[in-house]
Design a protein that fits this description.
Layout: H1 3-21, H2 28-74, H3 79-84, H4 100-103, E1 107-110, E2 117-122, E3 125-131, E4 141-148, E5 151-156
Parallel strand pairs: 3-5
Antiparallel strand pairs: 1-2, 1-4, 2-3, 4-5
Helix pairs in contact: 1-2
Amino acid sequence: MSEWMLLTTLVVTGLVLIAVDFYLPGFVLGSIGVVLLIVSLVVCWQNHGLTATVGLGVFEFAIAVGAGYASIKYFPHTAAGKKMILSDAQRGGHTALHSRDEMLGLEGVAHTVLRPTGVGMIAGKRLDVAAESGMIEAGTPIRVVDIRNNQILVRKL
């Protein structure tokens, strides 16, 4: 393989790996791509000197920035990009049923055995709950008495 073919292969492969890495977790492929670009600079320096290496480095940087921009700008509109990227906004999500003050005193039923944790039906919602003390049988009426460390503590009525 000629040295120009080797340089071209290293540069193109490195740039493709960096572009693909925008859409994959971690930076493994991007790291490999960066290493390939550095190897191409070393090969160029050994065979063509400093001037050609600087030129190749500037070229690689410009193409990498352009490829990154194009990857971010145009890939989401391709068929593969549409499958990989969430396109619908998620609205109306809530992280809590009620505030702490609203939860205290609510009554419900132990849906599963609480030993000491399990599931309770409170305000029509299945919630993970913990018995304040002891074990509570399924079907037993319960009341929310405290919320500590994001855990709903209940007591048998």
